[in-house]
Design brief:
Blueprint (H helix, E strand, L loop, with lengths): L1 H6 L3 E10 L2 E10 L5 H17 L21 H22 L1 H13 L6 E3 L14 H7 L6 H8 L3 E4 L21 E5 L6 E4 L5 E4 L4 E2 L3 E6 L3 E3 L13 E3 L5 E4 L6 H10 L10 H10 L6 H7 L7 E2 L5 E10 L4 H8 L24 E9 L9 E9 H4 E9 L10 E10 L2 E8 L9 E8 L5 E12 L3 E4 L2 E5 L9 E12 L3 E9 L5 E6 L3 E5 L2 E3 L2 E9 L2
Parallel strand pairs: 5-9
Antiparallel strand pairs: 1-2, 3-4, 4-9, 5-6, 6-7, 8-18, 10-12, 11-12, 13-23, 14-19, 14-29, 15-16, 15-20, 17-18, 20-25, 21-24, 22-23, 26-27, 28-29
Helix pairs in contact: 3-5, 3-6, 8-9
């Protein structure tokens, strides 16, 4: 004991195996103990060592963890994870100490600055709490190394505190009673889906990714929607708004669709969502041409009819993504695919949810790439990012199970998704004006769910057909003849460079044709109603159609 006191060794690692009907769960506990508890800990260690010797080959849900003080030389994401965990322990202690901090985080989370309940630490670091103590001061107080926060902020400038919306109304920013509820802290890795859970007393366990907590917890992670000025792509970002922290760092949104303030302005202008009715010209196109060999878009874009076969292009309409949903044929497979946030996006079998961390973000980020070749041979690739709230995308049924953890959390529950059903998501993402005088008659559409901010270029090859029936009529450049008219078409093979995010999940692709019917049929229930063509696209289905924009 004298040697132990001399070297001040106060950490004892012990391992328990909890026997449950479904199997045995391995739990690891790192606990800082006083001198007075060393003898008890030694006894516990002996007992649990005996238990461990009885069953060595059991697959476990909760994986052992080493002490969070272990900061041996690491690089890249591993080093960042060490820093996030160090910050996480300090945050857990700060949340327990300061109700003012809990109030501030809840308030900022509800602002949904990036269309999710994310709080960028850089934007609250110098907010004053009780006694003129700043958030930065409070976090530094609970870090063993006072210079550690500087390193954390430099290495992870977009460090984010996320308040999740957990199943069955168990916890959310909206329901958080900051006076009574002190959440645990989870730390999200960029490489694995399991989440480290920790509290202010130094307890820690790993929550397997297939479970969602049934207890209050906030998440420490890197932002996927906000980019710091140190990011190599920062100067190429086209987003309008800039954010500046009190320590001089500048940030931009990855896309304007993640900028809450801009989206609120769009809603006020009434441009974000579609009206409940189909535009009269879309309905007229169906009434005039039906789903016959003639093209409904000829009427929509060129005002052409069977008796008026010449028309100038109108910019009143624009191809727009108006609806999106995941496939109903394999919903669990789709669920697994887009919830896999590691760099190896391989979905589990349809019956499994073992690979998913589906609760560490309330909102998904999707990218749509549109490849529409121009006649001059220069590929035209257009892409946009858009958020979709998880509750808008899925209807999820959960099973409640005990938390596969250890004292003092053994009374907590977690949720396991047992079934998912896709829901329709209404959107208004304006894409392009489809003028056959300039562009091919087919368009390639690709969807992905975005997990990182690392852009990678890819070359896509398409075979495209171009209309030739255009010319001047009465001094106006017009389309001459329905469909391709009497003129010969031209065909060419084109290549286009598109951007996608490294490690993101490719949902699927589909080809649209100018000749595709917009409305496929109609029926009458107290009024005429129309079915709009929906395109299958791998794990998703979408509707892109002309929408009146001016």
């Amino acid at each position: 004991m004298k040697n132990l006191s001399k070297f001040r060794i106060a950490a004892v690692l012990f391992t328990m195996k909890l026997f449950k009907s479904a199997g045995i769960l391995m739990i690891s506990v790192v606990k800082v103990l006083s001198r007075n508890t060393l003898r008890k800990a030694a006894l516990l260690t002996s007992v649990f060592a005996l238990m461990m010797s009885c069953s060595k080959d059991i697959n476990t849900d909760v994986q052992p963890l080493t002490s969070h003080n272990n900061s041996s030389a690491r690089v890249g994401e591993e080093e960042q994870q060490v820093l996030r965990e160090e910050f996480g322990f300090a945050l857990a202690k700060a949340l327990k100490e300061s109700e003012e901090l809990r109030i501030l985080i809840r308030k900022r989370a509800l602002e949904m600055i990036d269309e999710d309940t994310d709080v960028l630490f850089a934007l609250i670091r110098d907010e004053q709490l009780a006694g003129k103590v700043t958030v930065k001061d409070l976090i530094e107080k609970h870090l063993k190394n006072k210079d550690a926060l500087t390193k954390i902020e430099n290495e992870i400038p977009t460090l984010t505190i996320f308040v999740p919306e957990l199943p069955n109304n168990s916890f959310s920013a909206q329901t958080w009673d900051t006076e009574k509820v002190i959440p645990l802290v989870g730390v999200k890795s960029q490489k694995i889906n399991d989440v480290s859970i920790m509290d202010a007393e130094g307890n820690r366990a790993v929550l397997p990714s297939k479970y969602a907590p049934g207890f209050p917890v906030v998440i420490v992670k890197n932002s996927l929607r906000i980019v710091a000025d140190s990011h190599p792509e920062f100067t190429k970002m086209k987003s309008k708004s800039r954010l500046t922290s009190s320590n001089g760092k500048t940030f931009r949104f990855l896309h304007d669709n993640f900028d809450r303030k801009l989206n609120i302005d769009k809603k006020r202008r009434g441009r974000l969502y579609l009206s409940s009715s189909i535009e009269s010209k879309i309905a007229n196109a169906y009434n005039i041409f039906g789903v016959s060999n003639n093209w409904q878009r000829d009427h929509i874009y060129y005002d052409m009819t069977p008796t008026q076969d010449k028309g100038a292009f109108s910019f009143d309409f624009k191809e727009t993504l108006v609806s999106f949903r995941m496939t109903e044929l394999d919903p669990m497979g789709a669920f697994n695919l887009i919830n896999d946030s590691t760099n190896d996006p391989v979905p589990q079998p349809s019956q499994s949810t073992a690979q998913n961390t589906f609760w560490t973000g309330n909102s998904y980020s999707f990218r749509i790439n549109v490849i529409n070749q121009s006649k001059n041979g220069i590929g035209a690739a257009f892409s946009t990012l858009f958020p979709v709230p998880a509750h808008a995308l899925w209807e999820i049924q959960y099973e409640t199970v005990p938390f596969p953890g250890f004292w003092p959390w053994q009374h907590y529950n977690v949720y396991f998704p047992i079934s998912v059903s896709p829901k329709y998501v209404d959107l208004r993402e304006e894409l392009f004006n489809w003028n056959l005088a300039d562009y091919a008659s087919t368009v390639l559409i690709r969807f992905e769910e975005v997990d990182t901010q690392i852009n990678i270029e890819q070359t896509v090859t398409t075979t495209d057909t171009y209309a030739a029936n255009f010319g001047v009529d009465g001094g106006i450049f017009k389309k001459l003849g329905l469909k391709f008219g009497g003129s010969a078409t031209t065909t060419s093979v084109n290549t286009t460079k598109i951007s996608y995010q490294e490690g993101s999940d490719e949902i699927g692709s589909a080809t649209m044709n100018f000749a595709d019917a917009v409305i496929t049929d109609q029926y009458y229930i107290f009024d005429w109603r129309y079915n709009i063509r929906e395109y299958p696209c791998g794990y998703a289905r979408f509707v892109i159609r002309p929408v009146k924009v001016q």
